[in-house]
Structures are given as structure tokens and as C-alpha cells.
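dumping this here before i forget
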Amino acid sequence: MGHRFGRERFCHIRVPTTGRDPSINRDCLLERDISTRRATVRYETVAASEQNREIPRESYCMPITAKLALEDGSVFPGQAFGAEGEVTGEVVFNTAMTGYQEILTDPSYAGQIVTMTYPEIGNYGTNTVDVEHHRPSLSGFVIRSESRIHSNYRSEAALSDFLKQNNIIGISGIDTRALVRRIRIEGAMRGVLSTTDLDDASLVAKAKASESLVGRDLAKTVMPAQGVQWDDQLHEWITVDEAGQQPSGDQPHVVCMDFGMKWNIPRHLRSRGNRVTIVRGDVSADEILALKPDGLFISNGPGDPEPLSYAKQTISELVDKMPVFGICLGHQLLSLACGAQTYKLKFGHRGVNQPVLDLTTGKVEITTQNHGFAVDEKSLPDCLEITHRHLNDDTIAGVRHKTLPAFSVQYHPEASSGPHDSHYLFERFQSSLSGSPA
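structure:
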């Protein structure tokens, strides 16, 4: 901290000039009057010969304690929060304003460093209820600003404490707008987030050498250790017509293939009175048939669907034996099992404000999405028809089988943090379990 003319200098950063002369940059000197605590901004022009001089570290607002580097050579310095260490992953972004705890605990983010586009994160804290899995699976968390306070009657801990408890590395204080713009232009990239290595060249080299998501079976890293019977129902804030029903001997039995399933999915199925059994996504068709299910659910999960050949084989053996409903990765796997192909999107769809058109009704749904791959429309077999489209890029958002009670959507109708426009899809599946038209 330095004093000059009764003012305390607490931030000193280099910013590009907005003038016509590109040879001059400006130093932005943020000062605070010691007596009135009023902050002011003063600009100083810097000659071209001085543009590259190093600003003393102690003059920054906050010390640089973490860095995010991308494979294209970009480096974003910031402040560490949460756990310490170093991780690699695909750097992606999510446009949600709320629901950060559900995002953190969504297994579909395995292998990814998630950037939040909304600038203020952590203001309502965290709790033990708003979780979608028993632990976070993402590689790292990137935000513009961590809220200094967390205030909500359900709050139990600060965001930084939640990250520490779950060994997740976070970085704040970076220009997330610049980062997201780069991802949108260049596409999702491999990156490294570190609190231990702050050398730019070293970090960029690590990012370039890191493993891609394409061709990796990430689902096996988040599958449950063994199958379980699911009993939890929806929270009292979420209501459905059949909520609270107790399963009985004559109620439908739904078997869920778990590739990294968000817990609000079985909550929906159980709240409609179904008996719900969760199995690993790599079980065989015979093992599933031995459970005598009335319907099959194919869950969401992380990464590339193409390497999951075992799932494709199992689903293809079951699709003509019972009603089938797939979500997200489950949508891609059902399509693959029917003969379609998938491809990697440039930067994916991740957020709670994704518009989808239901081609059957003509209605538009606002949906939650989290995926980096999509079904290739050119490869769609004759047995499948498109039921939903993403309105931002016209990609396939839902399909159904023309002759069998099987359908799937690319988005999340169960979205715990909302929106709830697509709950009707669970009703559609429920109708198919009882033998009514899907």
C-alpha cells in the first residue's frame, strides 16, 4: 500500500488506450481518499517505451495466486479460492445466473473446467440439500467475482468452503467475458488451472499436452459402485400431480442405467409412484431383464458417447422390449443404438436458458442443458423422427422411435434449479409405462 497526497493506492492495472494512437497505453490508478473512503480513478498516459515495464506486484488489487491457461496460449491470472493444486480439463462456460451448486455436483461436468458467465457467484452460499450427486466431478471452477458474503436461510457454508471440502480448485478475479468470447470464437479448448505453477510458458505447454474429451469413456469415472433401490422423492417446493405416491406391487418398476445420473431424475420417477432401481451403465441387457422392469431410463453423463459401445449394445437389445426414455447422454446413446451418429459441438450448450421448440405442439420450452456433443441429423435412421429442436443453432434436441415407445431429449426436464417447462416429458414416460400412448 502506498500513500500519495493523502490518498491510499489500492489498485494499479494496465489497460489499453481507447484513443487513436495505439502507441500509448494508460495506467489506471484507483485511489481512495483515506478520510472520506471515496474511490476515484485516475488515468496516466504511458509512452510506448514504458508499456512493457513490470508493475510491482504489491501494487495490484490482489496478488496473483492462480492462473488459467488455454492451449491457444492465452493465460488468465486471478485469485485462488477453494482447494489448491493443479488440474487439466476442457474449458467450457455456463450461462446460468443461479444454480451453481447443482452445476458443481452435476457428474456430466467430469473432465471439464467450468466458467460461469454471470459475474457474482456464491451470494446465497451452499447447503447439503441442493446437490445432484454425492460429490462434484468437474475439474475446476472459474468465476469473475466470489461474493464476500452468503445470505440465505438455507445456507450452511460459503462457496469457497464447499470447494475446499470437495477438493475443487477455483479461480476468481479474471475477465470471464474475454474468456467466454474466446471460447465462443475458437471453440472449447483444453486448459490447465493451477495454484502451484504460475509460469505462463509452463502452463500453456501443460494445456497443449493434456488429454482431449474426444474418444474417452468418462462415464465409468462417475458410475455408481453398485446398483441401489432409490427412495428419495422431490423436494416439497417441486410439485407434480402424482407426488408423494408410495410404490406398491402393482406400480411400474423403472430401471435406470446410470452413466453419471443427476439425482433429481430418480426423484421425479419415484415421486410418481414408481419403484426405481438404479444400475451401473455398463450392465448387460440380461442383467437388466432379470430385474423384470416395466420401463428403462437412460441417464445423462459426461463426455463423448461414441466410446460407450457396451451401452449401445445393451440399449439396442432392450429398445424393443419395454418403454425407453433417455436424457442428454441417454438421448445420444439411444440414437446411437438405433443407428445414428454423433459429433462434437464447437462450444456446447450449457445453461438454464436454452430455448427448445417442441415440433409436435409448436410450443417453446426454456430448458437446462449441459452437453458438448449432439446427434448428427444427416445420420438419423428412418426409424427415428425429430421431435424437438434447439432454437439457437437448429440442432436436434429430441427424437422418438416411429414404431416403439422409445423417446429421448438432449436437455434436462428434471432441472433441479429450474426451469420446469419440460416436466411433461416425465408424464409422457409414465403414460407409456401404463400402456397408454407415449
